[in-house]
Amino acid sequence: MKVITTREIRSGMKLYFELAEKERVVVKRGSKFVNLIVSDAPDRVFLDENWVKDFLRIPVEYRIDPFEISPSGDLYYADKRNVELLKEAINDAEQGKAVKTIKSQAELQTFLESL
Description:
By secondary structure, the protein is an alpha+beta fold.
C-alpha cells in the first residue's frame, strides 16, 4: 500500500492513477484518508471490512439486501426485522392508529398516566 499526500497527488496525478491500477493507493488529507479505487463501473459499491463483519452478525434468516432500500447500504435495513417494524409503523400511521388527538387537559393527564 502506498500512502501519499495531497501535494504529491497534485504534482503526479497520472502516475498515482496508474499506480492505483496495480496496487492500493491512499491519499492522506489531514487526519482522513481517501482510497483511490479503480473500477470499470461508476455505480459499483465498495464495502468496508467492518460493514461486512457487521452484516454477517445478522442471523442468516433475517439478512436482506440493504441497498434495495437505502442507497448508502445502511445496515439497519439489512435486517428484515427492522424493515418489518418500519413497514408496520408506516401502515399504522397511514391508518391513523399511530396518531392520538388530545383535546383537553383531562385527556392529556389520562394519556400520560397510561404510559
